[in-house]
Design brief:
The protein is an alpha+beta fold. Among the domains are: 4-119 and 130-228, no CATH class; 545-654, PAS domain (Beta-Lactamase); 679-732, no CATH class. The protein has helices at 23-48, 51-55, 65-82, 86-109, 117-125, 136-152, 159-184, 201-221, 231-296, 301-314, 351-363, 403-411, 467-473, 477-544, 562-567, 579-585, 588-604, 649-675, 698-705, 716-722, 741-744; strands spanning 4-6, 156-158, 318-324, 330-334, 367-368, 372-373, 379-389, 392-402, 418-424, 430-433, 448-454, 457-465, 546-552, 557-560, 607-616, 620-632, 639-647, 688-689, 695-696. Strands 3, 4, 5, 6, 7 and 8 form a six-stranded antiparallel sheet that branches. The protein is rod-shaped, with a radius of gyration of 64 Å.
Length: 745
């Protein structure tokens, strides 16, 4: 097959132009129309707010607005291609191609071009965790599919384009099929925007329809060449192996992701439990102090400092333990170091502290303040527990907690694996533990959120795994499976192509062998016929005593037939036919003239006819007649002199004998003419006198001088004269006509 082949456009059925002339064109147009309808219905769903049209199922992700618009353009491009509107088809592929390029750029660069917000900003901005709502896999599929449609619209399709289109289409179908299997496996609720092999279910279905239509149109436009196998089975087989590997790899990665998600969930539960249990522990500690205060009466400063010192020593995350008098003044505080500035100062100098203390006093139970900036520095909160003396309010115990110290004490072991964010729901203030990490160091897709409510306080805990945690949890096995599947896909495709080529080569070899056998048989028959003709020619030359010869002017080689050797008195082995050897056989009287005529024939062309005499071994002279002509061979183009030679010695001798006989006959004719003159004849006996003077009977004379022959009989008169006894017998008589000399005699 040539490197560049022009394929004829399929003929149209004029009676039904939409359905086309074959089932392939009909199915292609139906698939393209379905693609347009899916895109338009999804666009309508976005504008009308119909989730059934955009999601198909509530727990499935929707098809992005730009994806739906590009699907409609792709369907229009394929429909235009089937109606041989190549330029219109290429125009429709521009938008999907640009969307694919820009989507891939956004995902790889992390730069948002706000492609999806230009039509449905509110819908696409909620919950998005990537630069665009169009998934990376969708962008790649748009890029590959539009490129395939662009290529299939070329007027001349080289074999490389056919292979590229098959490869791109099968690759897109493999990605789409893997995404659909993900939905069947129940991965749809776990999808995050922009994951590689995850897209909306109807997006995956649309890509399958688009590329099936593309392959059908390629099949209709380029009939399979007999000289090479079609690349579609090889590409499809390879992509099938790759798709299975992709599905298996996705399944393994999903299991690992689910395991990681469960670990993150367990870690979030553990972190929330640590926080809550620790607060309960401090609640118990303050309750113990209050019970001692109630049983033994108001503690002295020394007693308070002893008990509070023991508690602070065992709890390094406790910033301070204070006693506020009934007027809210901080009278005692442990540890003293670092808290000198607040001694003797009001402990309820702001609204948050005052509200928390008032709540504890009224409820006679533990109350927590909202998040505040501590006097000692840092963000924290206070825990108030009211005291009573003989039923009267006698101040309150206050535990001061800094978030950083408390988080370090409770979540220190989790800090190496996760980033924890604690946000106060009331004040929207938050802390990040251990510190705020760069965005690339965490995986937001596995973030876990927990609500913590304790004694009127409300926090929201967010736990996000670090990059190294995710990498440790996600093994290389899915990538190895995917890479191995890619290698196996390539090998499988190559093996299928080799098997196709081998099978086709075997068929071609069998067909060629059959043709070769037929050709050999035909050649054998031709050779037999040629041998028979050559044998017949040799026999005819021998019988006719005619020999043939040829002179190749390019090599000056002379070839004689067997009969030529015999004519000149030689055999094949004892004479070499060269021009000099041949001229040596010619009689010297004839040699120069023969040379001149042969040289003129070679120089000027044409033909010649010549007789000459040769001297054969033994001294015999023979007369030869030779005819020759210059001929250009039709196949090789060689210029040759081809001639025949005949020994005409006997013919010349016979000719001499014939000429002698002719002379004798002419003399005899002259004698016959003499008889036609005056002959001396006896009037009585009728004898004739010859030239010597002898008298001869007339019949003897005539026989001698002519070819006349005589028979003897009796005429009627002589019968009656010689045999009178027969006189009464009537003998028919026929008289000579008048004027006959005999009758007159």
């Amino acid at each position: 097959m040539s490197a560049l082949t022009t394929y004829p456009a399929p003929a149209h059925d004029q009676s039904s132009p939409w359905l086309g002339s074959s089932w392939g064109i009909t199915v292609c147009r139906i698939l393209a129309t379905a693609l347009v309808l899916i895109g338009l219905l999804t666009l309508a769903g976005w504008h009308l707010g119909n989730e059934r049209l955009t999601h198909w199922r509530r727990d499935w992700v929707p098809m992005a607005y730009n994806t739906a618009l590009s699907m409609a353009f792709l369907g229009a491009a394929l429909l235009s291609a089937t109606f041989h509107r190549r330029h219109l088809s290429r125009f429709f592929t521009v938008f999907p191609f640009l969307l694919g390029v820009l989507t891939v750029f956004q995902h790889l660069s992390g730069i948002s071009l706000e492609l999806d917000e230009w039509m449905v900003a509110l819908e696409t901005s909620v919950g998005s965790q990537s630069p665009t709502r169009v998934a990376l896999s969708s962008g790649l599929c748009f890029l590959f599919t539009s490129l395939g449609v662009w290529l299939v619209n070329r007027e001349k399709l080289p074999e490389s384009c056919r292979i590229s289109i098959n490869l791109l289409a099968c690759l897109v179908m493999g990605i789409a099929l893997a995404a659909m299997v993900g939905f069947v496996q129940g991965l749809a609720p776990e999808q995050a925007w922009g994951r590689f092999n995850l897209m909306a279910f109807h997006s995956a279905l649309s890509f399958l329809l688009a590329n099936a239509a593309l392959l059908l149109w390629l099949r209709e436009k380029t009939p399979s060449a007999a000289s090479q196998p079609s690349p579609l089975p090889a590409v499809a087989g390879g992509m099938a192996i790759f798709t299975l590997a992709l599905i298996f790899s996705q399944t393994l990665r999903n299991e690992e992701s689910l395991a990681l998600q469960r670990n993150c969930s367990d870690a979030a539960n553990l972190a929330a439990a640590y926080w809550t249990n620790h607060l309960h522990h401090y609640d118990s500690t303050l309750q113990f102090l209050r019970s001692v205060w109630a049983e033994e009466g108001p503690l002295s400063r020394q007693q308070f400092e002893q008990l509070a010192g023991l508690i602070a020593a065992r709890h390094p995350d406790l910033q301070a333990l204070q006693w506020l008098d009934p007027q809210g003044m901080v009278q005692w505080c442990m540890p003293v170091q670092g808290n000198e500035a607040i001694l003797g100062q009001s402990g309820i100098f702001d609204t948050v502290r005052r509200q928390a203390l008032e709540q504890a006093r009224q409820s006679r139970s533990l109350a927590l303040s909202a998040s505040i900036e501590l006097k000692q520095g840092g963000l924290g909160f206070l825990m108030y527990l009211p005291l009573e003396k003989q039923g009267q309010y006698d101040g309150a115990l206050a535990g001061v907690f800094r978030y950083a110290d408390l988080a370090h004490y409770n979540w220190g072991r989790l800090a190496s694996m996760f980033e924890l964010r604690l946000r106060d729901v009331k004040t929207f203030q938050q802390i990040v533990f251990p510190e705020k990490l760069p965005a690339k160091e965490v995986f937001n897709g596995y973030t876990q959120k927990r609500e913590i409510v304790f004694k009127g306080a409300h926090w929201q805990l967010e736990l996000t795994p670090r990059r190294e945690t995710v990498l440790r949890s996600l093994s290389l096995l899915p990538r190895v499976v995917l890479g191995g599947g890619a290698v196996m896909g390539v090998m499988t495709g190559w093996l299928i192509y080799l098997l196709q080529a081998s099978s086709q080569a075997s068929r071609e070899l069998r067909r060629t062998n059959e043709l070769l056998q037929a050709d050999i048989a035909e050649r054998h028959r031709a050779e037999q016929a040629l041998q028979e003709r050559e044998a017949g020619l040799r026999l005819a030359q021998r019988v006719a005593n005619i020999g043939s010869w040829e002179l190749d002017l390019s090599t000056q080689q002379i070839t004689w037939s067997d009969q030529t050797y015999r004519i000149f008195g030689f055999t094949t082995g004892n004479f070499t036919p060269t021009r000099d050897n041949f001229y040596a056989l010619v009689r010297p009287e004839d040699r120069d003239l023969l040379k001149q005529r042969i040289e003129a024939l070679i120089r000027e062309g044409g033909a010649f006819d010549h007789e000459f005499t040769v001297l054969l071994p033994g001294g015999r002279e023979r007369i030869m007649h030779e005819q020759a002509a210059v001929v250009v061979m039709p196949h090789s183009g060689a210029v040759k002199v081809i001639g025949v030679v005949r020994d005409i010695t006997e013919m010349r001798l016979a000719q001499q004998e014939r000429e002698k006989l002719i002379v004798e006959l002419q003399e005899a004719l002259e004698n016959v003419k003499t008889l036609s003159g005056l002959l001396p004849i006896c009037a009585s006996c009728k004898k004739i006198r010859d030239d010597q003077g002898y008298w001869n009977q007339i019949e003897v004379y005539l026989q001698k001088h002519s070819d006349a022959k005589f028979t003897h009989g009796l005429c009627p008169d002589c019968v009656r004269k010689l045999y009178p006894e027969l006189g009464d017998i009537t003998i028919p008589t026929k008289h000579a006509p008048k004027g006959n000399p005999e009758s007159q005699a």
